[in-house]
């Protein structure tokens, strides 16, 4: 099948509106994910384990953990999102669903956006919900924990969106997992810097509104640009196979 | 000349090792890139020549001229 | 207009032009680098603050400068690959990415060695060095992706998408790294910022920057020619080219 083939049916003729198609893609991904619950738990377990390594490997002192805690949580969240990205398109690619998706009359980037949203709800959101517990374990203060959760709430969708580009580019390649990390980690650096920087500012009692707004700007930028790049990458990867 | 003697030039008032290491690595890497790219180019030229000579040699007997897209060239000549 | 555009995209045409251009590029590069670097090493006055270690600037700045502009050039070629599907743009990106990687490494290495006498340590998490390190990762990612995809055309287009995403991120990365730097270590003094540089310092610097640019031009032409030979091995003009050279 040639992925370059343009759909013959125009969106208005197909009878399914773009929003309905996005909703269908989203709910399908949710349903599939809830049938394989272990896959949902794995990134969370990984997140907890990586955080546990730091007190064991570096120091359990309250002063160290309080200073490094936000960074540890952010790095761990980043790594577990990275770990889960391989699943974003993989199953659909293997069973051919992805080719059908590409051939839909609705714009591909919006369907990719729906898929990425589902990915975030399934991995990013649970990480955000789990973060306060781990924040208490690394002795962060209440205010810092709140800011940390806020930055994760804004930051993890950005991670999923940028990650979708990498997942689409490495689709169907051997050793895709390692390659994906190589491609994506440099692009994650700004989010990481501002995520941890905002918490550091909050810990020092500085106002964080501007930083949070800036992270919001990252999110808007990622939502507008990343799905286009990911859709283009998907077409390339499918024409390759 | 910013230096009084050749030894002063080499020593650079104690900064010599740093400066000369940098210049050494710079020249080494740039030269290595040049030589390596050049050798790869020559090797590729050679392999193209071998492919086309082989095609000419085997095509001479037949009346048909060798087509430009000749698929038999994949056979290793080594 | 379109005819010129097509001609520019033709590998055969480029091959001929490059062959004629390369001796001049090489001669210019060697001459400019020789004059610039000898001037900088032996004749430029000593810096009053950093002493003679500042002479590393004459290779550090050209490498860093070129490392960044090669990435920008690759991004421009990536646009051409994705929009016009011009073969020559694919060839360019594939041919120069390793050169960009080496130049980025050189900028990092010379920066680190320069840091030892200046800051007293090999590595400092300075904003510029850190951005350079991230640029090195971006080059590495592009090369790794190119190697991982077997099909030439798909590889070129996938790398083009990656390079474009990277180039959108570069300003964001730079800005965030600078912000992070002010957060963690206020007021370290910068390697390459001088309030006013005398002409005896900046003229050789300019010469070596230009020299390295020409050197890059030569390398790019040569490596693109090699890549074209690989891709067009079976065409008639390549045959004529290689067989004519044997006879001559």
What does this 3D model show about the protein?
The complex is a heterotrimer of chains A (241), B (78) and C (248). Chain A has 241 residues and is mainly alpha-helical. Chain A has one domain. Chain A has helices at residues 11-14, 18-35, 37-57, 62-85, 87-95, 97-103, 108-137, 142-169, 176-203, 209-240. In chain A, α2 crosses α7, α4 (62-85) runs antiparallel to α7 and α4 (62-85) packs antiparallel against α9. By secondary structure, chain B is an all-alpha fold. Chain B has two helices and no strands. Chain B is rod-shaped, with a radius of gyration of 26 Å. Chain C has 248 residues and is an all-alpha fold. The mean pLDDT of chain C is 85. The B-C interface holds B 1-3, 9, 12-16, 18-19, 21-23, 25-26, 29-30, 33-34, 37-38, 40-41, 44-45, 47-49, 51-53, 55-56, 68-70, 73 and C 37, 41-46, 51-53, 55-56, 59-60, 63, 99, 102, 105-106, 109-110, 113-114, 116-117, 215, 218-219, 222-223, 225-226, 229-230, 233-236, 238-239, 242-243, 245-246.
Summarize the structure.
By secondary structure, chain A is mainly alpha-helical.
